[in-house]
Write a structure and sequence with these properties.
- The relative contact order is 0.23.
- Helix 3 packs antiparallel against helix 4.
- The protein is globular and about 35 Å long.
- It has a domain of 54 residues.
- It is built from 4 helices and no strands.
- The chain has 91 residues and is an all-alpha fold.
Length: 91
């Protein structure tokens, strides 16, 4: 497990897994519990990752960490959202 305490802002969005990965998982789980359809979960996860970097450039104050995500981090964030959704549908 990665120790996220004391990580610099540059490390947070550059590693595949960071402190926001769990938030993506919880978001997917919540979407399942709120009875969203799988395509809606996929659409929201991918859409957010596509516009996130643009939003960070235009409105960095909206984000707790405005550094640009690595491609690996974006992929893991999408997979975390989908995993949360899958688990939410099973429980």
């Amino acid at each position: 497990m990665i120790d996220i305490k004391g990580l610099s802002p540059v490390v947070v969005n550059k590693t595949p897994f960071d402190k926001f990965t769990a938030a993506h998982f919880v978001f997917g789980f919540a979407m399942a519990k709120l009875k969203f359809q799988p395509y809606q979960d996929v659409f929201s996860a991918v859409s957010f990752e596509l516009i996130e970097d643009l939003l960070k450039k235009q409105h960095p104050d909206f984000f707790p960490n405005p550094t640009i995500d690595s491609k690996e981090n974006s992929l893991i964030d999408v997979l975390a959202t989908l995993s949360g959704f899958g688990l939410g549908r099973k429980i």
